[in-house]
Specification:
single chain; 341 residues; alpha/beta; nine-stranded mixed sheet; two-stranded antiparallel sheet; 10 helices; globular
Length: 341
């Protein structure tokens, strides 16, 4: 059964996104500890894709998806749901889905209708339309509902889908997103969203979520509200931003969720000179920066290790992240912080 809380809330944030590293010497395990070389270009698995449009009969809403998965998987794969930024779609951020799937993950990129490419395509005033979509509370609620529905649909398909049956590890679920998608990730992790008029807050937490990656997070509320908004999150999260991640928020402000979540392991990776859009695979200006390939590569290195640590309960991966191995291979563009419970 899906529990989806529908309420009224105004979210004064969210403008942003339209929104490769290693080899294992033996077959992909599902959850045992192993030593992984996190500096190669790809995992050992050949990757296949499925493109589909799922129908949520309860909400009378289409949920388009693109799934990246290990083609020859013989054991259930941990799941990663990916939520695109404002104006994006399931087709964006392919470098992440492809890479994670090559390391044994089933990655589901969801299109959130109402805050997807349809918002700006063929519009005379695309930026005005984007801003309106960002400030429409229905889009935040629909995004949370899309994530919940997608997990319910994966549960069903793990039983009777010709391609996916038996390939989905529903006990090991992570959620990632960029910009508006990062906001969606934080909501799934348990972020409390203030209700206007001092009427408390609402949460749309997804209890099946085991870990998350929040890239370029928008920040809501005032400093005195940050603990109320973020303090209740008890999910391990990896936060990623850049010093030029400046759409609506500064890089310093984007670290607010990391600084205010105290009840679970938290990591923060800040890239020098990375702008808001580089994490989607291209620069906001359209002009590449010399460090872009390194930034994307380092993002793949740490995110894959993070998923191994928290979705596979891999002690070696967690040690690799926390004892200084990853910071030692970071080049001049990255600054790593961590707070381990």
């Amino acid at each position: 059964m899906r529990a989806f809380i529908i309420g009224t809330t105004v979210i004064m944030v969210l403008l942003a996104a339209y929104g490769i590293t290693r080899v294992w010497p033996r077959p992909l395990p599902t959850q045992t500890s192993r030593v992984v070389n996190y500096t190669e270009k790809s995992g050992p698995a050949a990757v296949a894709t499925i493109t589909a449009e799922w129908q949520d009969a309860v909400r009378k809403r289409a949920v388009p998806v693109k799934i990246y998965y290990p083609k020859l998987a013989t054991a259930p794969c941990p799941v990663i749901l990916f939520s695109h930024g404002l104006g994006g779609s399931r087709d964006g951020y392919a470098y992440l889905g492809q890479h994670w799937a090559s390391y044994g993950y089933l990655v589901v990129h969801v299109t959130h209708i109402g805050s997807d490419t349809s918002v700006w395509k063929n519009k005379q005033g695309p930026m005005i339309a984007m801003r309106a979509a960002a400030l429409d509370p229905k889009n935040t609620l629909n995004r949370a509902g899309d994530i919940t529905f997608a997990l319910d649909e994966l549960t069903r398909r793990n039983k009777d889908d010709a391609t996916l049956k038996g390939k989905i590890d529903l006990a090991r679920i992570g959620i990632a997103g960029h910009s508006f998608g990062s906001f969606t990730t934080l909501i799934a992790a348990g972020m409390a969203v203030p209700v206007p008029g001092g009427l408390g807050s609402i949460t749309l937490a997804e209890p099946r979520m085991k870990a998350g990656i929040a890239i370029s997070s928008p920040v809501i509320g005032k400093p005195e509200q940050y603990q109320q908004i973020y303090g209740g999150i008890k999910t391990p999260l990896l936060h990623i931003t850049g010093t030029k991640d400046l759409i609506d928020d500064s890089a310093d402000k984007r670290r607010v969720p990391y600084d205010n979540i105290k009840n679970a392991d938290q990591y923060l990776l800040t890239f020098k000179d990375a702008d808001h859009m580089v994490f989607s695979g291209r620069r906001l200006t359209g002009k590449a920066h010399p460090g872009d390939a390194t930034i994307n590569n380092d993002t793949l290195i740490c995110t894959t290790a993070f998923w191994d640590a928290y979705l596979r309960d891999d002690a070696d991966a967690k040690k690799w992240l926390t004892n200084g191995e990853f910071p030692r291979i970071l080049d001049k563009y990255g600054v790593w912080e961590q707070r381990i419970k």
